[in-house]
Amino acid sequence: MNRRTALGGIAAGIGVLAGSARAQPAVRAPRPGPARIRRLFDDGWRFTIGDPAGAHLPDFDDSAWRPLTLPHDWSIEGPFDSANPSGSPGAFAPAGIGWYRKTFPAPGGGGRSLLVEFDGVYQNPQVWINGHLLGGRSYGFLGFTLDLTPYLNPGGVNLLAVRVDNSRQPNCRWYTGSGINRHVWLTATGSLRIAPWGVGVTATPGGAVHVSTSVTSGLAGAAACRIETRIIDPSGMTVASGETGATLAASVYDFAQDFTVPAPQLWSPDSPVLYRAAVTVFQDGAHVDDYTVSFGIRSVVFDPVRGLLLNGQPVKLKGLCLHENFACLGSAIPGPTIARQLDILKSLGCNAVRLCHNPHNPHTLDLCDRKGLLVIAEAFDKWDLGTSPEFERPDFAATWQTDLRDMLRRDRNHPSIVLWSVGNEAGLPGTEPHDSTLASLVDFVHQEEPSRSVTCAIIPQIHGTVEDIVRTTLSAAAKMDVLSVNYQEQRYELYRAASPSLVIAGTESYPYFHGIPNGYDTVNNWYSAAAHAWVAGQFVWVGFDYLGESTGWPSKGWPNGLIDSTGSVKPSAFFHQAVWTAQPLVRLSVAVPVANADPGLAPWSTPPAVAHWNFPPANAAVLAVSAPSNCETVELLVNGTSYGVQQVSAAPNATPTWYVRYAPGTLEAIARNQGQVVARDRLATSGAAAAIALSADRALLTGDGQDVAHLEISLVDAAGALVPDADRVVTLRVDGAARLLGMDNGDLRDPTPYRGPSRATSGGRCLAVVAAQRARGQATVTASAPNLPSVILPLSVV
């Protein structure tokens, strides 16, 4: 759904008699003036931690509160402390209660409605306008919309107040942050309008497009309503259009329209083309509302013989799991940061993400649509079965239908979503009430959004006989369309033999070995997916290191991702990059003991390794040098001397390994196909740190108060090579039209505040995130470190 033109949730109702749609020839899409005006409502807020009495009242004095721009996560500001009640699940971060207030003028007259839409608030928000309580939402991962109109001061000043209560801790298995951590929008529209998330589109590869539009009315009586819908292709041409008229009563109704798109362009990861459905609403001939959604034309089938078929062709899910936090920013993640995360995933050959374990920011799905990433969209983690009471939602039984319906309506138009998941490790399969709850959730999705298959990630069972495990797992499998299992590659063939029509997806896989209760296999998990067509693919746990699920103080999070929290790719990712990537590739790494390493959790840990060749020469240790590759052979050169050629197919996990006594110099891996060099990788010993290298992923920022740049900071020698073994504290100063949001070095044990101006490098690197101010002009970033010259990076804000 196009979040800049589509309205989020609001409650109202209306009924209709449907007409018919008339197809029209292709024309350039016109640009009429909008009846719906929607704008970002993130600026001008004030915030305080605590629960002051009367903070919802207009005359309350908030002059001492902190001014800020949303999205905002107060937990990431710290202090992190082992005594905080969030504990290891919540990264030892503070939580509690906080308040937000904003004053704004409201237009007067015209019979218009004014709506406020929250993309997400964690959690338990209560919203007041001019002292009147409007409502909120207990589920912090979904948005909601409220109608401000009845209590506005037209033409005057209005006060919006939001109380956020995240005091029950822990309430989640990972870090969630606290506050209004997604965008807020203000929408002016007619009393007769399209309902929240009210336009749904389904399309087939043959070009048949069905559009359903829910219209809602705040009018006292009946009204003549007409909707016009245009289907707009990626070039901006209207390729089909039609209109439907009705007489409206005081209830809710979906208009139904069908169109044919000639010669449709199909959406796929290689060609993520998007169409738009633009719906205009007329009341008694007057233009009163409009709403536009993006969609893709494609087919998705999970076939028991060929696995996942996208547009009729088999596609293997090369996936990574993704939590919704970014260390130095917490859960208030700007759009460019989400885009950067997804680009890093794609650089590894990843074509799919599992959005764990809750509805993510709507902007994430917009980006997956545009970047061509396949998605498992997940609704819940734990349910309310009593298996993990501290993480379960006390109101689950009363709210799950509303929450699940809203997720489906919000996200149904995203072509990137290929599978709905109704839960993750919510209980033991084959038991009650797990299986009956699972059946209820799956059936509900089938009724509400039948265009996609439905699954649920099943917890691995480590007790009982193999026969019992197979029987109980298949009991749960019978309740869903695709069997999704976590860490169970060793049982795929057993499940399939017992139920030959199964399609299996590995929703969580260890990053290195199979997870077997009594030890480790030596074959990487990927081969269990690649070996069988009926295995749709795998999702490695996890893509990025994340806050929460800490392995114990002082660690604030999970350290076993393929990518650290700054976005630096670890050697543990090199195998996946090799087998997931079509382009010839070889990557070098060195297995080493790491001093003071976070012990992590053994099944997820990979052998400690680094991608450099800097070690104490006096030790002259023998080191294992690995070179995963997708080529036929790899040769290793050490200071120009060949250590031999290895056949990749004969090496465990496509990873040739040599044992080399350390001497300063160079390592070079040369990969060949049919005797021809097709790829190389090189590691060289660097000299002493001589300078700071400072670079930004974008030098031109939009002055909207939201745009960000990611600054990579490195210690380098006189030749400009990274120095990975001489870390020191780097301090930043940001002047002009930008501000520092946070700094991170990828070390989840580092006690330095994320929001401070200084941080030590780790492995010679750290990251800073800088945001544009709401102004045009120049900004400069100055980086300094002890005994090194300062360096200045200019940025432009336009």
Care to describe what's here?
The protein has 798 residues and is mainly β. The chain contains 8 helices and 48 strands. Strand 25 (417-424), helix 4 and strand 26 (453-458) form a beta-alpha-beta unit. Helix 1 packs across helix 2. It is globular and about 85 Å long. Residues 1-31 and 514-520 have low confidence and may be disordered.
How are the secondary structure elements laid out?
Elements: E1 27-28, E2 37-40, E3 45-49, E4 66-68, E5 96-105, E6 113-118, E7 126-129, E8 132-136, E9 144-147, E10 157-166, E11 184-189, E12 192-203, E13 208-217, E14 223-232, E15 237-248, E16 253-260, E17 275-283, E18 286-295, E19 300-303, E20 307-310, E21 313-314, E22 317-322, H1 335-347, E23 352-355, H2 362-371, E24 374-378, H3 396-411, E25 417-424, H4 434-448, E26 453-458, H5 466-477, E27 483-486, H6 492-498, E28 504-509, H7 526-530, E29 535-540, E30 546-547, E31 557-558, H8 574-580, E32 589-591, E33 609-610, E34 622-626, E35 633-638, E36 641-647, E37 657-661, E38 666-673, E39 676-684, E40 691-696, E41 700-701, E42 708-716, E43 729-736, E44 738-744, E45 758-760, E46 765-772, E47 777-785, E48 788-797
Parallel strand pairs: 22-23, 22-29, 23-24, 24-25, 25-26, 26-27, 27-28, 28-29, 41-48
Antiparallel strand pairs: 1-15, 2-11, 3-4, 3-5, 5-10, 6-9, 6-11, 7-8, 7-10, 12-13, 13-16, 14-15, 14-17, 17-18, 19-20, 20-21, 30-31, 32-33, 32-34, 34-37, 35-36, 35-38, 38-39, 40-42, 42-46, 43-45, 43-47, 44-46, 47-48
Helix pairs in contact: 1-2, 3-4
